[in-house]
Amino acid sequence: MNHYLYKLHHHIKLYLFGDEEQPVRCAGNSGKNQHHKSIEDAGACLQNEALPMVKRIEAAHHLGVLAYTGGYVSGTMAADYIPTMVELLPRPDLVDEHLVTLLQALSSVCYVHLANQARLCHLGVPAMLPIILTRASPRSPLVKRWACYLMDVLCINNVPTIRTLARTQGLQGSLEAMAEQDWDGWPKNHAAILLKILGFWPADKEADLEDGRDLEEKEEEEISGPTSHPEEKA
Questions:
Q1: H-only helix segments in the chain
Q2: pLDDT above 80 for 16
Q3: Residue range 123-148: average pLDDT?
Q4: Is this model's pTM higher than 0.90 or not?
């Protein structure tokens, strides 16, 4: 399990951040750790309602970068700004591109950080994410894939959240529809993983799904020749 988590988040880190370590520059240093000062700067921008939404979402991205690259202590510092990010999450005026960035930031702040996971759960995020996955939701497939990923992160070593999601009406159907979609470019199909974690599917179901996809791809190549696959998630 630990090897899987390492490979997974290494892939996600490269996709989200590249080699970025400290994206926020500060004018001065009052003796504080520069990384932690950058978290405060990004948090202040995030909470500043006078700023355009694009700037606040950019600040959320910076918080995710800093929380992930700075380790557990940085994640704990970033927790002060979780409520603001959660307040933005259900806003209908948030465009898909910004919602993806917000989901990415929350995933990074909560990754293997039980206290931050608990805070998101206390703020009702496990009830918000399944709404994004419904057929009635106007959100793009990319938004829905990142919603699945955040749910997966929230379930890591977190039995109460697993139980809450497992009792969510309609979630199984939404996840099954997502599991059938193309997750090309992702290291794992996180909808299929959630179906197993939440007890909706038997343990070998995902393997059967992947084997079926592999067979379909081989048949397509025999008919039309090999196709190239994008390296980034679409």
A1: 2-17, 34-47, 53-69, 71-78, 82-88, 96-110, 114-122, 125-133, 141-155, 159-166, 171-179, 190-197, 205-224
A2: no
A3: 96
A4: no
